[in-house]
Batch of 4 targets.
Target 1
Amino acid sequence: MSGSAAAPRRAGGGGARSRQRGSKRLGLFTRLVRYDDGQSAAEVYADALEQIESAERLGYDTAWVAQHHIDPAEGGLPSPLVFLANAAARFDRIRLGTAIVTLGLEDPIRVAEDAAVLDTLSGGRLELGFGSGGSKSSFELFGVAPEDKQRVYAEKLAAITAALDGAELVPGRPLHPPVPTLRERTWQASFSVSGAERAGAAGAGLLLSRTQPRDPDVPLDVVQADLIRAYLDALPAAATPRIGASRSVFVADDHDEAQRWAHRGALRFLDHLRTAGITGMASTVDEVLRDSYIGTPDQVAAQLSADTAVTAATDLIVQIHPIDPDQPAALRSIELLATKVVPQLDRLLTERVHP
């Protein structure tokens, strides 16, 4: 046997194989948000694991989770690596990612150690994403001043990068367990051209958000085109581009059903913004759903195919937030995305390249 732990296998035998398609990987992103206020954290986590199980069975390549602190309406998971360790023990094929760890609020060496253990136990399936973001309350919780946010993030990003590269943490003592390939599976999230350049120069993957602040008349993919261009220009010649485009996607068998769930989710999200005292993000249902792709498989495939950032991405990462329907509707959307939308999207993109 080799010196690293073998990937665990769930009861019942081997996992599903990835679906056969083009080079674009398909990822499921869950923020572990409650469907209604009566759900416990345990129920939310169980639902998320069931969604990942469905994604693995349907051939999704990756499952991603976000990190949020003391704000379950925005995201219910403060410890993403702990959750992914549970997923790694249950599911033996799907890759597992953080999008993102809010690194400025963490000890970078402890994150490196936890990530190294998870990567070892999962058989090298971790995709480790970092970002500087996080709610105002999160930074207050950990005592990081807003004006120090970017400086602290840059310092901790340098520290964890060195650790993953095998640098000595104290004389003669590098990171343990060693994970020599994990550095090649790190990602950086950014809203800015300078952040995209930093990710590219580091040879990391670039994570693009499902939405971001911008002029209301400018489409999301137009803004993100500048980030993609900056990332690719900064990428070392020997590095392979990795661009993850996160998108809010909800698919239903019926258009009206999809719109009903979307309207409900948008109203709940607006209630959350009001309760939390968050201003400037959205004030109407249309603003909440502005960057969401909602409808039947045919409609969603057409919407995604028109998104130039999705076209340029190596990874399409779909999340149901802010629609956040009940579990049956969420599972159906995950299924329709894999079985109906992606095949049509592949065809539409292929026809665009080879008319």
Target 2
Amino acid sequence: MELIYLIFNCAYLLTNYQLRVAAIAAIGYGYMGLICLTLFSSLWLLRWLVELTQHHTIALDPRQLSMLFGLGTIATFWVYSPSPSDREIQRHDFPELFSSIDELSVKLNTPKVHHVLVNYDFNAAISQISQLGWCGWQRNYLLIGLPLLQSLTPLQFTATLAHELGHLSNHDSIFTGYILRVRQIWEQLEIDSNLVVFQWFFRWYEPLIKAYSFVSIRDREYAADALAKRMTSPEIAASDLIQTYIYQYYLQEDFSRQLDRQAQSSETPPPDVVTQMLAALRQPLDPQTAQIWLNLILA
């Protein structure tokens, strides 16, 4: 009986939490709707004032009014999301990589990855860039950091790919996507728009939606990890995560200090930082040191 009570209590808390997060996200969408309604009302008020001062009725076709309203709304809520500026790679240059992406995309039932880019970050990511602002038409970018690629085995990198593509998969939470979209819209509006009505609302809304949606965002990462495990194996997915965190710690705590010492002993910065980094990532780490770092990370 205690187990049944615990299950029902957890289900109630989860449902209650999701309802609260959905309500807070709805506030973000609702505020945008309120601004749209205000714009529409302003058009009618402007028409009424012109009729009142000019003493004649303005014959305005409803379709023209709708068009004006639509243009005003788009101009107000237009968010510009620049495409990543990293180097794009092509299928004919790296056929094995694109073959792996295609295979995982089919298995995970993901939309098309339109662009694959490489950079010098120790990271991999999926980025969805809207071509029409908040109106949609997403383009999917897969970003791959060369240092990360250098530190992983092919099977571990497959787990990383599966994790990132899992964020595009139909298996990914629709509810979490709903939360993420409103967060991204308002973050972009805060950057692109100087309107007081946006700045004032964002200062109140941004910490609220981030705090309440934290669990959903983490759940999204766990779901992507589960897909990575399913596409490879639990052992490979786990070793991928461990390897990534250990080498990230190595770059922050060890390699960066080596660069600092080089910079202090020379009048000019080291000219081959990336080359040194990639060479260092090719070398195996001392097992005892790696275990110490892993324990620090887990703590």
Target 3
Amino acid sequence: MLLSCGDALVDFLPVKSADGRDATVPVVGGSCLNIAVGMARLGAPAGFVGGISTDLFGRMIADHASASQVDLRYVTRSDCQTTLAFVRSIAGEPQYAFYDEATASRNWTYRHCSIPFNEIEALHVGSTTLANDRGANQALAMIEDARGATTISFDPNCRPNLVRHKARYIDRMNELAAAADIVRMSDVDFEFLYGASDCGERARSLIAAGASLVVITRGIKGAHAWHGRAGLVKVEAPTTRVVDTIGAGDSFQAALLFALRAIGRISRGTLPQLNADELGRALSFASTCAAVTCGRAGADPPRQSDVGPASLRLLPRVQE
């Protein structure tokens, strides 16, 4: 099973009402929930770890996840309210206003040894629940239990308006990246964390410290990946009609983990054996899935039927 741990929330997306006025529509989201949904829709056994409220919005979240066959056995339900996010698009990038005080996601607590990590192929962590010390500490405690048995995937998915102390936040993100086997982030997040630093140099330093794979996604410019054996691999982004980019990175992340599992390279033992051809295929598949998401409103990860047989043929199973 592939697990994704972190935020589950409701986005309020901008729309026009029938009489032309500005309005919003509630849509289930949250980066880590989107990733769990994306992996499950592509056909991998996938589960979500985190807090989900029992309120109206929490029931929407649970129903949405269950409809995509996401396993919720490791979810903590509580009467804390659901995180809400109001979305606007500015210069092509989604901007968020979060309402996240005392929420089910934010108050989630990891229980030591509550997950049998010897049965889990990969654990993904990231996003808004890491923006405060408590959430980051819970994630690190879970990673400590998982390390050695499970591949750790990390995407900071930075939300600057939730960051109170940037220097401390960057230290936390560096600590999480150092604990991960797979690190992925957007070029926007890289700039927020590291400014004008050279991304290749940063990626190589993470690999030298123990990571197997580092990926920087660059929107319409494609993706660059660094791997200890495969070296630097670049792929272009497919051409698509962009409705919005909400959830595109999540779909990329979900598809990347799905692809690595499909070709037999997701475990901590096989991920370092990845070669350049395999990595290129996985990145191309992930880019295709992200493009599908960009072509429709909101965070709506694709199913296998959405990406088509040609894309799935990019992922022949490796013969060991």
Target 4
Amino acid sequence: MEAFESDGLFWLPGQEGSQTAGRISFDPVSGTCLALIGSFDNPSGIDLHNNRQISTIHGVAGKRYLTLVDCTRSSSRYEFPGFQREDYRAALMFAGQALLGSDELKFDRVALRFNNLHDWVGCSLVSREHEIDSVSGKLLKAALTLTPMEPIEHAADNFTLALSGVWTMSGSQQKPGFTEDFSIQINYDELVEFSAIQADVSALQDLITATTDSVTVPNEITLWLPEAEGEGPSRRAVVQAYAQQSAHSMLTSSKSGDTLLRLGDIGGLPALARWLSFVRDRRVVLGLMLSSTYSKIYAENKFFNAVSAAETLHRMEFPNELRPADEYKAFRRMLARHVPKRHRSWLSQQLAYSNEPRLRDRLVQLAEYGGLSAVIACDAPLWAKAVTDARNRMVHHDKGKGPGASIAELYWLAESLKIMVLLCLVKFSGFEEGCDEKMRDAPSIEFLASRVQGILTAQPS
């Protein structure tokens, strides 16, 4: 999503005859801002002190209709020689061929482009040819050929995925060329809320980020409105969505990492569809896992978030009790009968969560399921102990037990947790066999393995 600014006219829905001039601006980091030269308010009843919430603002600017959603007035003031200005911030903006009402944010088709999508797909639509004279060695002819890609589709439950090529002419007569990219389309079987589409966009963004080890953000989100009711076929209106992207601020500071897995490695569009279906109810895991990738945080926070991602995933996908609930309830009652009545309430509270697996056991089970030992060449129980000890020392601050893990150790343990969660998600999503081997051979994983092995070697027996 590129930043832009444009002057235009703006009004409240149903009040097209009362338009106000203003300037709309969008920045991926700061979001959408509207600066009005005037006011939507009745001048005699203006409240300059309280924020005003407006669900929808309509406008036209830059030769496009604009719909601003979930707007908050950030400031209102008078300026010499006596006119008012108002500033609004919007959570979402839709720009394109139609105006939308607050109850019309439902779509059945979206096309997405991401900054790292071309590298993740891992193929090129452009071929280069050279013809050299065999005698003189001179260049006789050189050509760049772009072969448009036929869309690839895969039908899944309730939606269809498609991958297509996108290209534009670039350069000049002196330096001609092509700019190629790819687009992922999701065609839903029925209209879905934009919030659900946002969740799918985030899921794709997170997968590309995790498997390329580089911050990924959407460059373009294009949506198709439902067909207008009436006789005969009609061209569907198209709008583009704009929203604040906190991860965008990390693009300049983050370096491109090793691509751990590409689209072809995971199994193409069928695997991508399984990923979308699986992670829709597990957004919290991805958010915790990638929080340090999308924002600058302390190593301690990075470590805690990684531990939380692992524990949350285990709670969602593995049994969360050591004994069957009925059996454990009877066991607690038996214990309570053997203590005085005045202590039974206290004992019951102490035993409330004692039937749940301990963190170390959860980590061991996750590591064994995902195959972490084969990827970073570590002993799963020893690794789980190191993570658990580091976490407990930070939480409990037990005196006399040393300083705990260093900042560097917390960082590398957090990275290993992130890889373990990714390995488990890869397996839960049914990616192609051999993904763990491809990840293991990446230089960044080899370096991570050496750091983790150093930490485990230094662990007391």
